[in-house]
Amino acid sequence: MELSSFLLMRHEISLLAIILLLIIAEIAIPDHKKSSILHLALLFFGIHTAVGFLPLAESFLFGGMFRSNDMIHFFKGILNIGVFTLLLQSAEWLEKNMLSQERGTEFFILLFASLLGMYFMISAGDFLMFFIGMELSTLPVAALAAFEIIKRESGEAGIKFILSAALASGVSLFGITMLYATNGSIYFDDILTTLTAENLTILGFILFFAGLAFKISLVPFHFWTADVYEGAPIGVASYLSVISKGAAAFILMILLFTVLKPLMYIWEPMLYLLAVATMFIGNIFALRQENMKRFLAYSSIAQAGFILLGLMTGTQLGTATVVYFVTIYIFSNLAAFGVVQAISTQTGKENMKDYEGLYRTNPKLSLVMMLALFSLAGIPPVAGFFGKFFLFTAAASEGYYLLVFLAVVNVTISLYYYLLVIRAMFVRKGEAPIPFFENRLYMRLGLLITVIGILALGLYSPLYDYIYQLSTFLN
Amino acid sequence: MDILSLFVVVPVLVILALVFTKDLRQARVISMIGGLVQLGMAINLLFAYFRERAVNDSVMLFTRDLVWFEQFNIHYNIGVDGISVSLILLTSIIVLAGVFISWKMEELPKEFFISLIVLATGVYGFFISIDLFTMFVFYEIAVIPMYLLIGIWGSGNKEYSAMKLTLMLMGASAVLLVGILGIYFNSNADGGALTFNILEIAKVNIPFEAQKLFFPLTFIGFAILGALFPFHTWSPDGHASAPTAVSMLHAGVLMKLGGYGIFRVAMFLLPAGALEWSWFFIILSATGVIYGAFAALRQTDLKYINAYASVSHLGMVTFALLMLNKTAWNGAILQSLSHGFMTALFFALIGMIYGRTHTRDITKLGGLLKVIPFISVVYVIAGMALLGLPGFSGFVAEMNIFMGAFQQDSMFYRVATIVSISAIVVTAVYVLRVVGIMLMGTVKNEAYNNLEGTTWYEKTGIMLLLIPIVGIGIAPLWISNLIMESLQPFIQGVL
User: Fold this and answer.
1) Residue range of the domain that includes A37
2) Contact yes or no for B72 and A427 at CB 8 A
3) Residue B287: inside a domain, yes or no?
4) Does some domain include residue B1?
5) Does B167 sit within 8 Å of A381, measured CB to CB?
6) Count of Cβ atoms closer than 10 Å to residue A469 Cβ
7) Which among A374, B245, B315, B358 is least surrounded, fewest beta carbons within 10 Å?
8) Number of A:B CB contacts under 8 A?
9) Residue pLDDT, tens place only, A224-254
10) Cis before residue A55, ω within 30 degrees of 0?
11) Considering its fold, how many domains does chain B have in total?
């Protein structure tokens, strides 16, 4: 094995290097200059993101434990952009609240460690690597959720998250052992050849699935979502709802479409029911939320329901539309969380009522929020529309017209609560609107990236064509 | 740049220019220039169309086809026939009139004009699209600004009305989406590729079962926008709360998307489904026609009266479309045009009356003919046009509709036709009732004696709308011919 073949793990190695560099920087940089760590981390990660888009060969390592192909590579790039944007948006919060407590570096290290876990998870070639990756991606987030130690809600969020996550991981691992018991291997490629629909296998699959369903917060594994989002720092909530969910949906798709394809007759009706339940429950609970973070939590549960529509198909079209939808969702949700973050950092206000009259004082922020919400709701010409339309097309191509109909009913329901926010910002004047404030450069950049993503991903069709091309690997 | 894409590009440029305006004066001047340019383009298109039609007999003219999403065979595919040209002309006139009527829009003027023009862009785009996907995109672009337009600049119970209107119309588009996907996945029934192209799909024989399933979805999806009974409830509330120019644009143009979509998509692509379901929708349309008329009779709020009148008159459009013959179809398109001008004129006049008297309750108004003669006289003229007096556009349209309807000689059609025709009588009653109470008699309120006269921009707006009404009424043949020859593909495809 040549040393250069390890370059297949370029993303992982480079991220690990950044983590180590940050640890050194934490030790080396004197206390009064600690704020430079923020810029340093952003610089490193920016370079990492940019370099990540250089092409990478399709191959595997460690006898198939770790693999990479163009699609996985592309998705890691998207995750990188997402995390980079999120860091830009969180920079001011970090500087204001965390650096003064000398806890800036931990934030980056924990976040990057979790991202590293995601990389391993989506690159996994066997269940062991998958499980390690999943754990690595989950555990640091519990610490991150509890990061604002002076707030009780934050600690509560951390505890809630770690308890539910531990349970989910345990169940998932139990499922994996059953799959191992019936197949005698943990390698995806081996299982693919031996998998048959025995009862134990099916039970194993269902338990395993529950673990991932927890990460994507599908109903009925969604109970942690709203509470954790509400208590956690906004950057972390954003990470959970965007990066974590996106990566989990992606690996679930790969597993379902390759290894678990023989069980399709089991998971197809299962996903059908979960999709309907997730969409309806997410949407109905979102209707009456007052807190913006809880609001976005339920909205993101509902969005997960839409993702399932594409997952059910098991076709190349399904793959492409799911990846496309998730990519758009990442940008849209980051934009929404970014605005919430900006306002919360400046004023500490997080309720929908506080947003009343926002357009008259902060027109640009309101417009970004409007774009984000339109994209989440699926209104043209922003990208969310195209994402949803194609997802529904994929579902309809397999003849699920009834499910598509239920989904569009849900789109209409969701439009109601997205419009509530728009009503607060644009229609109402508010008794004490948030006064005008100027955002810092990092925040503006963070929002700009999302806006470009929201606009370009839909109207500029070659991006979809590119994703479609990448998704051939399944067939 | 081709002649049709300009209808999307110019409004977008106007929007970009509006972003940089600072106050009402700049915003309205730019919007007016934009509106004038669009009107010029529409007139130019009309003449160019006549010239081109003389030498070219393909279904759609000025077509342009760019691949957008190759994987789904989605194209940016545009083209026009006589029907779309006439509706584009209608749109450009009403947009310009709307700008004049909003001359004194004090609150957030820039945003108001931008939203208004976004709406217009959606409408233009819808009328020039041949591709179902593009059409659907423009449909939604046209609907969503309504929320802000009513929510921010509306009056009365505006938050409720705006939400109701937006949700019902977006719900409609959701139903429509299922219908469109159904059509798309059956467009390869003859062995070709899946396509969103309307002209291509029209050549395909979509299986009967699919037509039966997807026709009602597509039909209802469009019909909600056309205020088909019983899905019309958004319309009176929405119109009553909307600012004047928005009511004009919405009732005058946006609701026409419904009828146009029913004709061009639901009936043209799913003819067997149309035959199968026509009885059901004829009942709904006829009910809408008579129900709208009687509801208008009971209202005292001017905007509600006009909104229910719209329900009634647009019911006639769907009714005529379902009569499945050339004369009735011609009447349906003429009715769309005629109703567009008339209802926009009505809403403009109501806005002017309300702006002066601060009430829309006809029982509180009286003797307006003495104090604001210009507005009142035009109101009478518009009323005469609405009740179908010969010499105005309404007469030509309704004449065609009912002549066509009587060609169907089964009992069911006869009854439905007679029910619909009787609405004309009720129309006369509610129009004359308003004229009698509001315009005639003594001046009820002393303060009304010093009402402000009509300003130049109001007069311009009124004349823009009045001229076509009289024009179509006196010389209907040229526009009728324009529509008639474009009906040929429908006659071959549907009948």
Assistant:
1) 3-474
2) no
3) yes
4) no
5) no
6) 13
7) B358
8) 85
9) 888 899 889 999 999 999 999 999 999 999 8
10) no
11) 1
